[in-house]
Backbone:
């Protein structure tokens, strides 16, 4: 089954972007996933192809219109479409590796790229849009966020990564940041690879990696430790 992404956007030329290169690009050529950008302006109803208007109640910026976006969603995702509808939004639920894995296990996604000040709440509610945030910062639009989301999903699709274990031994997969990595040469600028990694004792290696992962997580992301108790 191929993962099919439909992206509703004002800038369809931004897709597939960097996802047309490297592992994701080769997967795209093989048909492991597909990308269908949808131009939101095609669903505008006036001669100027307006898709936004001033916010009700006043305020800065412009708001994407519910009627225009609703028509685009309906045309892109008819009732029989089982793909989740996602809205890239800084006020959405934080994207997690667990949610990425859920999406990668599904048939695809309909991704709405927000722009301007926001999106009319009525279309968010009526079209059951799941608001997704990639972090506590503001971008110029949802397109870069959509590309990040797709990047995270595509690398988990079957056959995309050369080593199947690569996707299961990473930061966040077990609630921890990933342990430090080393490779040849054995010594660089007077700093040697830790002896435990060269000893061949896999039980000791795994224990060291776990200890380092816990240390890094405690230093950099203590919120992850609070969210998930560590195994004893």
Residues:
């Amino acid at each position: 089954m191929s993962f099919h992404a439909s992206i509703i956007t004002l800038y369809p030329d931004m897709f597939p972007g960097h996802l047309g290169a490297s592992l994701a690009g080769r997967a795209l050529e093989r048909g492991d996933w597909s990308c269908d950008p949808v131009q939101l302006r095609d669903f505008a109803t006036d001669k100027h192809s307006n898709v936004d208007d001033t916010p009700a109640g006043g305020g800065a910026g412009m708001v994407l219109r519910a009627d225009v976006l609703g028509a685009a969603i309906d045309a892109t995702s008819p009732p029989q479409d089982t793909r989740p509808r996602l809205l890239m939004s800084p006020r959405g639920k934080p994207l997690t590796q667990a949610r990425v894995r859920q999406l990668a296990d599904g048939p695809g996604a309909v991704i709405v790229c927000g722009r301007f000040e926001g999106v009319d709440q009525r279309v968010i509610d009526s079209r059951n849009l799941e608001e997704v945030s990639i972090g506590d910062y503001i971008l110029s639009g949802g397109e870069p966020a959509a590309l990040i989301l797709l990047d995270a999903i595509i690398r988990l699709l079957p056959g995309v990564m050369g080593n199947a274990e690569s996707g299961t031994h990473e930061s966040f997969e077990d609630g921890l940041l990933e342990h430090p990595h080393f490779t040849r040469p054995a010594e660089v600028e007077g700093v040697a690879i830790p002896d435990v990694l060269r000893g061949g004792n896999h039980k000791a290696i795994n224990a060291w990696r776990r200890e380092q992962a816990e240390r890094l997580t405690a230093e950099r992301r203590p919120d992850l430790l609070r969210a998930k108790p560590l195994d004893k």
Observations:
- The mean pLDDT is 94.
